[in-house]
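haha ok so turns out i had the wrong file open the whole time. this is the CORRECT one, sorry everyone. sequence first:
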Amino acid sequence: QVQLVESGGGLVQAGGSLRLSCAASGRAFSSYAMGWFRQGPGKERDFVAGISWSGGTTFYADSVKGRFNISRDNAKNTVYLQMNSLKPEDTAVYYCAAEKSRYGLGSRQSADFGSWGQGTQVTVSS
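then structure:
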């Protein structure tokens, strides 16, 4: 099992930027595809961005495409989410997650992920 700890959340004005980090420990981080999900107030947890185990494939929810960028540094056991041009509707708790199976290309389905962080709050004011 891999342990995940998110950081970097906070309060930002609309149009601003934040970079979230997710530090992993435990099983071989570099072998697993990773994802970012978010859960807004009164909403279900939704997919935000995903990255393959190698980092060669990335994909995004339509709502964040062109504004967010996911990346990973396998040497540092860390995955990042750079968030630009933030909007009030981006307000949510953001979670990183590691897939259950090794060497995946990534997934948009939360059921494919076996390890989750505790979440970090992002609040965007208008």
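The first strand starts at residue 2 and ends at 7.
again sry for the mixup
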